[in-house]
Amino acid sequence: MEIIRTPLEMTAWANRVLATGQTIALVPTMGFFHEGHLRLMRKATENADHAVVSLFVNPIQFGANEDLGRYPRNFSRDCQLAQAEGVDVLFAPEVEDMYPAEAATRVIVSGLTDGLCGESRPGHFNGVTTVVAKLFHIVKPHCAVFGRKDFQQLAVIERMVADLNWDVKIVRHPIVRETDGLAMSSRNTYLSASERHAALCLFRAIGHARRRVRAGLVEATVLHREVEELLRREAVIIEYVSFVDQSTLRPQAVLQKSTVLAMAIKVGTTRLIDNDILFEEH
Ligand code: PAF
């Protein structure tokens, strides 16, 4: 596996690959890999001749009071894990090379970024779309693989790609969970044992919602109340519980095929998100 440190070298590599008619799949990440990332990498190797993983803790998607300073990092372990997955290139640029002092451009998707996580993290998605747009230009992938845990991020990126007529296929990867149901996240490392236990209320809420939908419940307000009651049994702070359409992210009063149950909570100082397409077979 090659480790590439600068955007210029990365694009030169991509141009060489493209000149031979071969394809590139990109997995954008912020590192500190867990099994969820490794599955995205496997998907990338299946989808193209070459897999590139970007590892960049993107400062502009963190708010002033967020966890940029303590975001977990382990570069040498990440290199070993990516190499073992058959990744061709790990692209790990420096902040100064991605955002030179004179940089003045942001990529902004409006509307879809206002609600859900956008409400408590103003500017977050502008940071995401800006860095993903830059990564697409630098790496020139045919396809890019994203996990569905960040389902609003996925919807926003799909919108950006469609709106900008970008010839990149966005591949959605299902949520990867620990054996007890907690959705995998680099931020899970922040949790103490008791917080980790409390965090399982998210998965319990999904199980409950699925059972209620299977039994024929269609009123979102009823399920909303039940899910909040269930989450409140643990020492967590609810940021939002929403039932929204999976593409438009508009709230839905009637539960239906396109409905996603999306939740964000705070456990101690750690913010966790989870979601589920309630009618989807597992
Ligand atoms: O999902 C993430 O890890 C990040 O938001 C991404 C897509 C790598 C952009 O920095």
Describe the structure.
The chain has 282 residues and is of the alpha/beta class. The protein folds into two domains: 2-173, HUPs (Rossmann fold, 3-Layer(aba) Sandwich); 186-275, Pantoate--beta-alanine Ligase, Chain: A,domain 2, CATH 3.30.1300. 38% of the residues lie in helices and 19% in strands. The chain contains ten helices and nine strands. The chain has helices at 7-19, 35-47, 75-84, 95-98, 117-120, 124-139, 151-163, 193-199, 201-214, 220-232; strands spanning 2-4, 24-29, 50-55, 89-91, 143-147, 169-173, 237-245, 259-267, 270-277. The strands form two sheets. A six-stranded parallel β-sheet has the order 1-4-3-2-5-6, sandwiched between helices. Helix 6 (124-139) packs across helix 7 (151-163). The longest helix has 16 residues, at 124-139. The radius of gyration is 19 Å and the shape is globular. The chain starts with a strand and ends in a 5-residue tail after the last strand. The chain binds pantoate. Pantoate is lined by residues 28-30, 58, 61, 128, 131-132, 150, 153.
List the SSEs and their pairings.
Layout: E1 2-4, H1 7-19, E2 24-29, H2 35-47, E3 50-55, H3 75-84, E4 89-91, H4 95-98, H5 117-120, H6 124-139, E5 143-147, H7 151-163, E6 169-173, H8 193-199, H9 201-214, H10 220-232, E7 237-245, E8 259-267, E9 270-277
Parallel strand pairs: 1-4, 2-3, 2-5, 3-4, 5-6
Antiparallel strand pairs: 7-8, 8-9
Helix pairs in contact: 6-7, 9-10
The structure holds pantoate.
Pantoate is lined by residues 28-30, 58, 61, 128, 131-132, 150, 153.
